[in-house]
Amino acid sequence: MKQVLEAALLTSPQPLSLDDLLKLFAGRMERATLRMLLDELKADWSDKTLDLVQVASGYRFQAKAQYSEYLARLNPERQPKYSRAVMETLAIIAYRQPVTRGDIEQIRGVAVNPNVIRQLQERDWIDVVGQREVPGRPSLYATTKHFLDDLNLRSLAELPPFETFVQTDIQSE
């Protein structure tokens, strides 16, 4: 069973949830057993080149950080650079969600360029999760599981405390 889990995780292009992994065994495995096997797999791989990690969408294998410099040479594509406006908007959404465009503009003190929102949606880091019940019914934005997966987080609770950014900003002045 552990080898089946290992093969599924190693060959999957995206993280696999507990429900996905349970499908492998056609309902003949308990969640507790599955978690125990995942813990064993994690321990088995602890001294190898990959780590079994849990992110918001489920479990996945990923290369250990010490190999990232080498692996980056395989795909020399430059990572997209995000403007300060994009990063500020993303931070506001992540820490204050759900928020409207108006909320973001009020916090930032400037108008939000529609391209900023579009860029974050195309990256699948934010999505519309509803509308605020006020005149005009503005869209409410929140982060996605893909955002958490890309940052290796299981939940928003794992984001660094907002206060660390405020203190860093004060110290840099």
Automatic annotation (TrEMBL):
Keyword Cell division tagged: yes
The organism's place on the tree of life at top rank: Bacteria
UniProt keyword annotations, A-Z: Cell cycle, Cell division, Chromosome partition, Cytoplasm
Alphabetized InterPro entries for the sequence: ScpB_csome_segregation (IPR005234), WH-like_DNA-bd_sf (IPR036388), WH_DNA-bd_sf (IPR036390)
PANTHER family named among the record's database cross-references: SEGREGATION AND CONDENSATION PROTEIN B
UniProt xrefs under NCBIfam families: SMC-Scp complex subunit ScpB
Protein name: SMC-Scp complex subunit ScpB
